[in-house]
Specification:
By secondary structure, the protein is α+β, with helices and mostly antiparallel strands. It has a single domain, classed as Rhinovirus 14, subunit 4 (Irregular). Helix content is about 20%, strand content about 25%.
Length: about 70
């Protein structure tokens, strides 16, 4: 490798908008992110399904599990 052409790869401090912070390694000294694994809805389990124009119901009706009819 050539000398003097590569950036320094040192410890970096990452700060999320939610207040969470951690240390990693990067060419930048400080990194600011908008969302992390502590506040992302997919990782926290708080993801809400937004139904616009009844698409979920239409999908369930068309492809969802069929309920078996019980004879009396």
């Amino acid at each position: 490798m050539k000398e003097g052409i590569h950036p320094t790869y040192a410890e970096s401090h990452v700060v999320c908008a939610c207040g969470n912070s951690w240390t990693t390694r990067s060419t930048q000294k400080e990194i600011h992110v908008e969302i992390c694994s502590n506040c992302h809805p997919f990782f926290t389990g708080k993801q809400k399904l937004i139904d616009t124009a009844g698409r979920v119901e239409r999908f369930q009706k068309k492809y969802g599990r069929k309920t078996e009819k019980t004879s009396a």
